[in-house]
Amino acid sequence: MEKVTGIGGVFFRSNDPTALANWYRDMLGVNLVPQDADGMPWMQEAGPTVFAPFAADTDYFGRDSQQFMLNFRVADLDAMLAQLRGAGIEVSHEQAMDGIGRFARVHDPEGNPIELWEPAG
């Protein structure tokens, strides 16, 4: 059976795509979509990617209308949270799961939840 080799992109609606793309670049280091052949898209580091549909009535993402939540791996959760807090971004849902890692949640300027994950080990 042929299989996909990874996630090639994440696409979602935005009220202000330029401002939101700039926020992801400035706060999380996700490069903007290249505008020409010389530009480089965001290149993620190799590591685990969890693909997990949730029950339709989950409250894990926040608001009922939220159909997805981004989860980004980070090397140093404490450093990332200090950086975000320094920029005035509220952090919530800090937790640790034995054998899985540590998590925290922030929201982008349009209210989309973003989970940050420092994998265990």
Automatic annotation (TrEMBL):
It holds the Pfam family Glyoxalase_6. Signal peptide: none annotated. Residues 6-119 form the VOC domain. Transmembrane segments: none annotated. This is Glyoxalase family protein. It comes from Maritimibacter alkaliphilus HTCC2654.
